[in-house]
C-alpha cells in the first residue's frame, strides 16, 4: 500500500501526525484556553495592545483542526500574529424603545415589548437594584433587549441624561445597577440691568428660569423682589454650565453673584465648609441666609400690616396685626424659621391656624388654611421651609389668602420691615479656610467682569 503514495505525501502525512499529536498533548484545558491573552502588535508604531481570546469549550477539536491546516500547508505564508487569536463574537441584541407616557404601567410596557407579567416579576425580583424598575415617571425612556432567540436579556431605563437603571440577565437571573454620569462643569458669566422685572432682565442676559429663581432666593432674605426692585438695579452672576460629551445640556449652581438694589451692593459667594455643608455668604463671612424667611409664601400682598385698618367683614376699625398674601387655594405655606409647633387647629376667626414658637421671644402665626400639614401637632419641631399647611379661606375671610403674623415678646411687628436675625456666620476656626477660598472666587468674578466689559466696549466700536 505504501508504494501507491509518493514519498512527499508520506512525509506530509507523517508531519501532520506529529503536529496533531503535539497539538493534542500541548493544548491547554478549556479553562485555560478561555482566558488566553495575546497582544496585537503594531511594528511600525512599536506598540502592543492586549487582546483576550475566548474559545468555545464545546468545540476544542475545531480549533485544533484550524491550526493543523495553517501549519501543514507549505504553500501558505506564515499567518500574522493577529490572525492566530480567535474571538467569540458577542451575540447580537435587538432593542425596542418606548417613551413612558402618563398612564403607562410597567406591566403595560412589558406587554408592548412582547413579554408577560411572569417575566416582568422575574425582572423586578432580581438582584441588586432591579426592583427600582417599578418606579416609573412620564417622560422617561425604557428599552428592552432580546437575543437571537427572542429571549429578554437586558432592560435600560433612562431616567435623565445623567442617570439610568441598567438590568442585565446573568446566569439565569436579572441584576440591576444604577449608572450615574458626571457632567463637566465650566464657569459662565451673565450680567443685566433691570428695566421692567428681574425675570425679563435675567432672560435677556441668558439665564434660564431656574437660575433666575435661585438668584432671587439668594438675595431674597434682604430684598423683596416684588416691592423692593427698581428700574436700573443691576446684577452679575457667575454660574455653572454643564456639559456631556462636549455638548452643553444644562446649568448648575450659582457660584457667586452681585446685586445692586437702590444703589446698595450685595455680594454672595458659594462656600462649602469643612463639614461638607454648602451655603452662600458675604465676603466677610456673614450668612446670606437669615434665621427667618422674609415671606413664608411667594405671592402678592393683598392687605399690609396696619394697626388702624378697618376690618373688611365687621366694618369696624380693628388693628391688622399681620400681612395678607393672596394666593390660589392649595398653595403651600412654609415655616418662616426653625421652631416648635405651639398651636395647630381651629382658632376662631383665624380658621385653621398654625402658630410656631422660635426661641424665647419670637412667634409666627399662619392662618386661614384650607388644610393643615401632616404631623403638625403641638410640640412638633419644624425646620425653616417645611410645609405647615395650604392656602384656603377658613375662618372670617372674604377670599382665599394667607394671614401671617410676626410677634416679638407678644407684640406684633411688620414682618416685611422688621430686622431679621442673621443665621450663623462662618465660625472663627473656619475663617482662614473661608478667606483663602473666597479670595479665589472674587478674583474669578473680577476676571469675568473685566472680560465682559472689554467685550461690551468692543461691540460698541
Task: Produce a short descriptive summary.
This protein is an alpha+beta fold. Helices cover 22% and strands 34% of the residues.
Largest sheet, described in full? 10 strands, antiparallel
- Structural class, by secondary structure, is alpha+beta
Radius of gyration equals: 36 Å
Give the overall shape, derived from the CA principal axes.
globular
Terminal Cα span: 103 Å
Question: What name is given to the CATH topology of the largest domain?
Answer: Nuclear Transport Factor 2, Chain: A
Number of structurally distinct domains: 4
Q: Per DSSP, what share of the residues sits in E-state strands of 2 or more residues?
A: 25-35%
Beta-strand segment tally? 23
CATH architecture of the largest domain: Roll
Total helical segments: 8
Low-pLDDT parts are 1-85
Mean pLDDT: 81
The CATH C-level class name of the largest domain:
Alpha Beta
State the helicity in percent bands: 10-25%
Structural descriptors:
Nuclear Transport Factor 2, Chain: A, single chain, disordered N terminus, 4 domains, 22% helix, 461 residues, ten-stranded antiparallel sheet, alpha+beta, six-stranded mixed sheet
Walkthrough of the structure:
The chain has 461 residues and is α+β, with helices and mostly antiparallel strands. It has 4 domains: 83 residues, no CATH class; 87 residues, Nuclear Transport Factor 2, Chain: A, CATH 3.10.450.350; 140 residues, Nuclear Transport Factor 2, Chain: A, CATH 3.10.450; 114 residues, Glucose Permease (Domain IIA). The protein has 8 helices and 23 strands. Strands 14, 15, 16, 17, 18, 19, 20, 21, 22 and 23 form a 10-stranded antiparallel beta sheet that branches. The chain has a 6-stranded mixed beta sheet with strand order 3-5-6-7-8-4, covered by helices on one side. Strands 9-10-11-12-13 form a 5-stranded antiparallel beta sheet. Strand 11 and strand 12 form a beta hairpin. Helix 1 packs antiparallel against helix 3. The radius of gyration is 36 Å and the shape is globular. The N terminus is likely disordered.
Amino acid at each position: 500500500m505504501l508504494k501507491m503514495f509518493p514519498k512527499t505525501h508520506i512525509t506530509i502525512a507523517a508531519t501532520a501526525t506529529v503536529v496533531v499529536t503535539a497539538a493534542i498533548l500541548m493544548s491547554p484545558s478549556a479553562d485555560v484556553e478561555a482566558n488566553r491573552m495575546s497582544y496585537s502588535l503594531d511594528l511600525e508604531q512599536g506598540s502592543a495592545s492586549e487582546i483576550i481570546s475566548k474559545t468555545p469549550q464545546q468545540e476544542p477539536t475545531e480549533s485544533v483542526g484550524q491550526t493543523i491546516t495553517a501549519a501543514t500547508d507549505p504553500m501558505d505564508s506564515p499567518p500574522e500574529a493577529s490572525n492566530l487569536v480567535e474571538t467569540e463574537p458577542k451575540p447580537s441584541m435587538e432593542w425596542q424603545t418606548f417613551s413612558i407616557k402618563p398612564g403607562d404601567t410597567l406591566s403595560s410596557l412589558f406587554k408592548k415589548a412582547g413579554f408577560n407579567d411572569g417575566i416582568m416579576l422575574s425582572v423586578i425580583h432580581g438582584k441588586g437594584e432591579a426592583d427600582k424598575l417599578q418606579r416609573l415617571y412620564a417622560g422617561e425612556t425604557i428599552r428592552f433587549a432580546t437575543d437571537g432567540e427572542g429571549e429578554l436579556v437586558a432592560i435600560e431605563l433612562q431616567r435623565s441624561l445623567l442617570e439610568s437603571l441598567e438590568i442585565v440577565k446573568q446566569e439565569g437571573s436579572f441584576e440591576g445597577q444604577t449608572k450615574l454620569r458626571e457632567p463637566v462643569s465650566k464657569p459662565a458669566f451673565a450680567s443685566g440691568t433691570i428695566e421692567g422685572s428681574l425675570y425679563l432682565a435675567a432672560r435677556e442676559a441668558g439665564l434660564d428660569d431656574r437660575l433666575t429663581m435661585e438668584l432671587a432666593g439668594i438675595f431674597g432674605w434682604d430684598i423683596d423682589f416684588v416691592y423692593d426692585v427698581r428700574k436700573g438695579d443691576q446684577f452679575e452672576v457667575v454660574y455653572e454650565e454643564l456639559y456631556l460629551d462636549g455638548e452643553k445640556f444644562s446649568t448648575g449652581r450659582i457660584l457667586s453673584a452681585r446685586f445692586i438694589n437702590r444703589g446698595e451692593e450685595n455680594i454672595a459667594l458659594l462656600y462649602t465648609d469643612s463639614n461638607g455643608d454648602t451655603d452662600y455668604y458675604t465676603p466677610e463671612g456673614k450668612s446670606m441666609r437669615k434665621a427667618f424667611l422674609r415671606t413664608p409664601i411667594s405671592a402678592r400682598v393683598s392687605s399690609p400690616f396696619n394697626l388702624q385698618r378697618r376690618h373688611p367683614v365687621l366694618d369696624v376699625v380693628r388693628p391688622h396685626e399681620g400681612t395678607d398674601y393672596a394666593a390660589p387655594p392649595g398653595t403651600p405655606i412654609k415655616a418662616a424659621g426653625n421652631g416648635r409647633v405651639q398651636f395647630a387647629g381651629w382658632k376662631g376667626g383665624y380658621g385653621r391656624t398654625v402658630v410656631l414658637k422660635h426661641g424665647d421671644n419670637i412667634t409666627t402665626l399662619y392662618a386661614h388654611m384650607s388644610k393643615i400639614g401632616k404631623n403638625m401637632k403641638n410640640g412638633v419641631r419644624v425646620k425653616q421651609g417645611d410645609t405647615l399647611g395650604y392656602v384656603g379661606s377658613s375662618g372670617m375671610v372674604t377670599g382665599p389668602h394667607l394671614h401671617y403674623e410676626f410677634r416679638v415678646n407678644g407684640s406684633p411687628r411688620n414682618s416685611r420691615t422688621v430686622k431679621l436675625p442673621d443665621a450663623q456666620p462662618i465660625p472663627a476656626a473656619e475663617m482662614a479656610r473661608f478667606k483663602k477660598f473666597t479670595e479665589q472666587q472674587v478674583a474669578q468674578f473680577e476676571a469675568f467682569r473685566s472680560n465682559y466689559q472689554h467685550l461690551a466696549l468692543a461691540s460698541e466700536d
